[in-house]
Structures are given as C-alpha cells and as structure tokens.
C-alpha cells in the first residue's frame, strides 16, 4: 500500500519517482570496476534517452580457408590475444561428413596486430599429402570437431597447462586438453571431464563448447550446447580445478525485465570482457532452421553445398554476470548478413570466440562467413572500446539517473561521444536523489567530444575522494550524445 501511494504521489508531481525514496533500493557496490551500458544493471531512470545497440564495422577478410586441409567447412573459430601475439584456431574440413569423424583437423594462424594474419608451417601432422601445414591437432576425432582453447589466467597455473581446451561430441563427452604454448597439445589424463552421463538433456556438445577462468568467480566456467524441447540451448557448469565439474544448469533469457524469446543458439561464445571481466559477453550464433532465403538457382550460382542453404543465421549479443541468466537486452541482430547471396546460407555468420583489442581505441570480433562455399573465410569487424551499446540521447536531450551505488576511487572516467552541438553534464546526488553541493548540475563542466577515457570535472575540480565509499547516484544530462561506459579510478 505504501509503494502504491508513493507511485500515485509521484504521478501527481508531489514526490519524485518511488525509486528515489530512501531505503527503497540497496546500493550497488561497483568499486573501481568499469561498467558498460550493455544491460540495465546501473540504470534507474531514462528520460528522453534510450539504450541503443551499436553494430560492428566490416573490415574485410583476414583469413581465407584455402588450404587443401581447410576448405568449405572450416568453423568453430577462437581468437586469443596473448600479450603482443594474436592466435586463431579453427576447424579444417574440406568436405562434408559426419560430426567428429577423421576428416576434421584443427588449424592455427597468428598475427602481430589482429589485422594481418599468417599461417605458420609445422611438421606435426601430414594431411592431404602435405608434410608441412598449419595443423596443430589431428588424428584426435571426435575432439577435432569442436576443439575450443583458452588462455588460462588463473594465478599460479603451471606453465605446462598455460593453455587449456575442451573438445568432443556426445559420444566422447567433453575431453580436456592442455598445452604450454598454444601449439603443442596433449590430452589430459582425466579424459572426458564433462561426460554425457552428467548432463540431463537428450542431446548435447555438438557445437563449440567454451570454457575460461573467471577472475571474479575464481572458478573455471564452461558454457556448452544442449537440446531442450528440440531447441538448441546453453547450459553452464563450474569447476575449481578444470577436472571436476558441477551439475550443469540451463541458462535462461531475459530482456529488460521480461522473458526473452527462446531461439536456436548454435554457439554461445561466452567469455569475460577484457576491460570488465565481471561482465561475460556472448556473441552468439542465432540459427533459424528451415528459414530458406536462396532459390536453388542462387545456391548453384555461388557454389554452396546443396545441403547448406536451407537455413540462415546471424549473430546476437547477450551478457551475463555469473548467474544462470543471459540478458538479451537487445533482441535484434548484432552482426547480420551482408549484401549478396553468399551471406544467407546455412551456418554462416558464426562469430569466433572472444572480442580482442586491436588498437588504442579499437576492438575486434571475427566472423566465420561463406560457409560451405569455395570462398569460406574469417572476417574481421571493428568497434570502439566498450562500444557494444550506449545510453543515447538525441538532439532534443535526455537524462540517465543511476541506481544508488558505492564506488571506490577519486575520479570519474567516461567513454562517450557527442556531436559538435551536443554534450554531457554529470550531477552527483545522494542516495535519495538530492544533489550534493559542489557536484550539482550547475557545478558540472560540460563534456564535449569523443574519447574513451575522459575525466569528468566540476567547478571545484575532479576529486571525488570525499564521496568514495558512500551511496550516491549519478545523473547524466545529455544532448546528441552516447555514453558507452563509466569507471571510477
């Protein structure tokens, strides 16, 4: 009854919105971590502003799958940034065949900038009559169907296990691998660490099944593909040692407080965002079975395999913060098919695992395209740092008011952009919504420009030490501007 009265009074203009009343909302403890506007975690109110999804820029082909042991059915790619070196892993598969048979290998490429890639020549496996090639794993079916490596960042990890991987199908379970250098791999003695018997679903594992060390949860986390009610879904499990895993939990989907549609997700590609590892990004492949776009004549013209143009697919963006729910804040496509029939076949537009930094203000995601075609390749798409989504206010102006939060730091940094006519002002309020003297809107210096790291200032300067550790709200008053992220430093 009390909450209802507050709502009525707010509607009459007698009180501010109910969320601004003392004691109504527990402050978020964000410390000094970077927060992105990929969900509504920080947001209490938006007035004349909205959460807006941004789309990566197509930067063109970076790897052609043109070697005899690669071919039309290359897929399940992973890109890892290890210091100054970028590593790419992908399945080589020149001809169609059953999942997990001996025709599959895993290939490797590397780059010094994430843009220009080379394929080193090794002599570990002879394939297609070639003793030298870029194959780093072969003769290991069915694990070479969907081998998915990661760089283990757990403190104290032995050098011999600096890289780890999972691979396998329902018959084998998910089998563990280790490597000291990301190139020379061996199967872990434990074998299938996530066996079929521990997964309570009728079908599982037949796509890229990912794992990583979470510095926030201080556990290994794995997300893998299952079927539920004949729909491709995602399950999550966790481990302290990468060998013993918890019973899997089915992931659910919400969108801005509502249940989100359940769609076929072929791969999930969930991983900690490198600038905010408490936020797990999922640039997932959305599969539309039976949604045929091409005619038989179009399919023949581009040379796609006759079994692989009866469906279509694209990439979507989801996030999760370590629970059993993905936030599908944006239901529309994140990376959609480009111009041309070759982009509208089955199992194309599948993102590689991981978003990596490729410039001072740039990051990249890589996408497997032209699947089942002679032109199969890996393509790079670029974004500004943190640029998945933003709080956007157009020329008419708008506002964002955060939930109460407790920070640790002495400066507020924002990643933002404005037009020449636009700008952003920041007011700091107490947890009840009352402006704090010295940090009011009138005290705020307008931020104009386009930067990934701008320190916000007021007439009295930028020092926020007096507010650190206390519950506050942030009010952003914006005009023709985007706010991508914030961080207290």
TrEMBL record:
Residues 1-22 form the signal peptide. The keyword Signal applies. Keywords: Signal. Gene3D superfamilies: Glycosyl hydrolase domain, family 43. It comes from Gimesia alba. It comes from the Bacteria. The keyword Signal applies. This is Glycosyl hydrolase family 32 N-terminal domain-containing protein.
């Amino acid at each position: 009854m009390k909450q209802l009265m507050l709502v009525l009074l707010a509607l009459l203009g007698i009180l501010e919105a109910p969320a601004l009343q003392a004691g109504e909302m527990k402050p978020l403890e964000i410390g000094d971590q970077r927060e992105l506007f990929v969900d509504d975690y920080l947001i209490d109110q938006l007035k004349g502003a909205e959460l807006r999804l941004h789309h990566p820029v197509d930067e063109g082909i970076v790897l052609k799958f043109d070697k005899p042991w690669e071919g039309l059915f290359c897929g399940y790619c992973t890109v890892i940034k290890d210091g100054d070196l970028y590593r790419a892993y992908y399945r080589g598969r020149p001809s169609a065949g059953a999942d997990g048979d001996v025709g599959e290998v895993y290939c490797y490429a590397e780059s010094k900038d994430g843009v220009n890639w080379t394929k080193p020549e090794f002599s570990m496996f002879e394939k297609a009559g070639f003793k030298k090639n870029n194959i780093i794993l072969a003769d290991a079916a069915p694990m070479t169907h969907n081998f998915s490596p990661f760089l283990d960042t757990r403190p104290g990890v032995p050098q011999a296990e600096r890289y780890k991987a999972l691979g396998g199908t329902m018959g084998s379970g998910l089998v563990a691998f280790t490597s000291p250098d990301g190139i020379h791999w061996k199967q872990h003695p434990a074998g299938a660490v996530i066996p079929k018997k521990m997964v309570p679903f009728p079908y599982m594992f037949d796509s890229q099944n990912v794992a990583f060390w979470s510095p926030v949860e201080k556990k290994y986390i794995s997300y893998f593909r299952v079927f539920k009610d004949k729909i491709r879904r995602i399950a999550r499990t966790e481990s302290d040692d990468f060998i013993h895993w918890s019973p899997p939990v089915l992931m659910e989907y919400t969108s801005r407080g509502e249940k989100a549609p359940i769609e076929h997700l072929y791969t999930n590609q969930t991983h900690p965002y490198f600038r905010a590892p408490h936020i797990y990004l999922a640039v997932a492949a959305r599969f539309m079975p039976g949604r045929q776009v091409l005619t038989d004549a179009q399919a023949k013209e581009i040379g796609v395999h006759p079994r692989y143009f009866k469906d279509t697919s694209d990439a979507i963006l989801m996030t999760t913060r370590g629970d059993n729910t993905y936030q599908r804040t944006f239901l529309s496509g994140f990376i959609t098919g480009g111009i041309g029939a070759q982009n509208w076949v089955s199992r194309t537009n599948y993102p590689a695992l991981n978003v990596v930094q490729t410039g001072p203000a740039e990051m990249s995601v890589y996408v497997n395209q032209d699947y089942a075609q002679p032109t199969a390749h890996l393509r790079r798409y670029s974004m500004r740092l943190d640029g998945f989504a933003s709080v956007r206010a157009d020329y008419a102006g708008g506002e964002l008011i955060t939930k109460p939060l407790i920070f640790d730091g002495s400066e507020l940094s924002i990643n933002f952009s404005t037009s020449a006519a636009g700008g952003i002002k920041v007011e700091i309020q107490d947890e009840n919504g009352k402006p704090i003297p010295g940090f009011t809107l009138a005290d705020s210096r307008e931020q104009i420009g386009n930067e990934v790291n701008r320190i916000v200032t007021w007439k009295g300067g930028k020092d926020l030490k007096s507010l650190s550790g206390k519950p506050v709200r942030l009010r952003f008053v914006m005009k023709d501007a985007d706010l991508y992220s914030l961080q207290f430093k």
